[in-house]
Amino acid sequence: MTGPGFPSRPSLFSRTLRECRQLYVQAGELIASKHSTLVTSPRSYPQLMDDLHRGLVLKLYLTICEADQSWSSQERLLAEVLCHHLWGTWIEGDQLRDTMKRASTETATLEWAALVRPFRTLAPLADKAPVLETLVTRLANLVARCDGDLCDAERKALGEIEGRIRGIFPLGGGLSAEDRAADDWAEQPADQAAEASIYRNLPPRRTGDRRQSETIERPAGPQPVEQSTDEQPTVEEALEELDRLIGLTSIKHEVRSLANFLKLQQRRSEAGLPETEISLHMVFTGNPGTGKTTVARIVGKIFGALGVLEKGHLVETDRSGLVAEYAGQTGPKTNAKIDEALGGLLFIDEAYSLVARGSEDPYGREAAQTLLKRAEDDRGQMVIILAGYPDEMQDLLLSNPGLSSRFSRKMDFADYSPLELAQIFGLMCGKNHYELTPAARLKVMLGLQHLYSTRNRHFGNGRESRNLFEHAVRRMANRLADEASISQEQLVTLRDADIEFVSLPAAVFEDLDESRLQVSMACGSCELTKAIPLSFLGKKVKCPQCGESFVAEWGELSSVDQAAT
């Protein structure tokens, strides 16, 4: 589809629509195949997510287009692209107008929160929320700016959409694992409005004047997901996923050693030799945001692939998911949560809160005793991971000999270094198709270095990088809000003005003499570390030792004077 007045980058609109559908459908397939207990109809869940995506993109388009009560030729062309994306056919003229009117009536009943709720309430989808927010912002801007004129009404509509999405996904916010599971959107009848027939049925075809594109077959929707062990990743695939994580060197070594031990036991068993029984229950200690839940999920995949556990799924909970409010209810509640984890892993965050120190807590102690008994009785059917701050977890283990004997395997998650935090930020940018100016890279590294040097036990680690990224995307949206026309480069480029460290004083970045700073880069091939000027940030450089070329993305900042000494 090309023509006069059509946006210079129409492929970006079409590609963003495809990315939105892919995000929703893959999220639905993940829930259906790996976390089926979280929803009532796992087989149809991918289709339901596809319907939500249809409702979302239609509501986005119509909210912007109806803001100024006019429909420009450029907006009509985008509507053709949108209809082809949704129904696999090109329509125009009166048929296009009628279809959009029908869609407008349907989307008027939909709430933004209902269209994105799975990414807020289902724990396995929580890390995809920033991707969704980025796609929403990009789609809304592409529609609003396609004709080059951003009127006050469109600017207001953009702000309202971004404000609603921000309210649904607050920075650094989130529900507990238990709250997410309890707020299962699929069981809310009001949300089923997203399944309205307008989203699935093809618009009526015109008679006569058939364009060749009208013969395009409608893309097949997501197929029902079969819950099969065939989709279980192999041990090697799970370990590769572990290796792709940033940092966590000692943790990777421990997990790989455990996997090697279990593989050896399998071979001994196949050879008719006795196996060495060990407890697989674990304790994960570390500050928030150090990757404990992510590693637990990978460990589950490894155990599932090895056949140590039947499924290897991960059930997350905390004190609220185990301890009841009234006498006689804690035992059944704890047992029910453990039953949910059979065949997989039970991950208990802030496990030390089960037994309040220095106070009588009969309910918490009942939960702990039930947990101990089931940890022993069902040790061949599940693995329990207790997680929390290092000091508190140590006190918990010392307070109960039964816990320390059954949970003897301990993994300590260290805080991420400033370089690793910057790499996490860069990874989020790459996943969401954002690029950074050299000045923005410098500001990210400098700010994260200050955050790290002044951190306390409540330091957010990876969450700091995630919050910084989400905040930068929102500041970028505000910066571009008053621009009448924006290019594709502007849509994907984060500048230094978009990077803001709310908790740091402005003096950290003021009077910065960039000529006195340099950044140390390590070659990924020969591991040579060399200091380079800041002007090389984001550019391709060549290692003087092995000749390997790579992009100078992130490094460790130092002063020229410091390096000289």
Structure description:
The structure is a single chain. With 565 residues, this protein is of the alpha/beta class. The protein has 3 domains: 10-229, no CATH class; 232-413, P-loop containing nucleotide triphosphate hydrolases (Rossmann fold, 3-Layer(aba) Sandwich); 420-564, Helicase, Ruva Protein, domain 3 (Orthogonal Bundle). Helices cover 49% and strands 9% of the residues. The chain has 20 helices and 12 strands. The chain has helices at residues 10-34, 45-65, 73-87, 93-107, 112-121, 129-144, 152-168, 177-182, 235-244, 249-270, 292-306, 330-341, 362-377, 390-399, 401-406, 418-431, 438-453, 462-480, 488-492, 560-564; strands at residues 282-286, 314-317, 345-348, 383-388, 409-413, 435-436, 493-494, 517-522, 529-533, 540-542, 549-551, 556-559. It has a 5-stranded parallel beta sheet with strand order 2-3-4-1-5, with helices on both faces. The protein has a 3-stranded antiparallel beta sheet with strand order 9-8-12. Residues 206-217 have a biased composition (Basic and acidic residues). Belongs to the CbxX/CfxQ family. Residues 278-417 form the AAA+ ATPase domain.
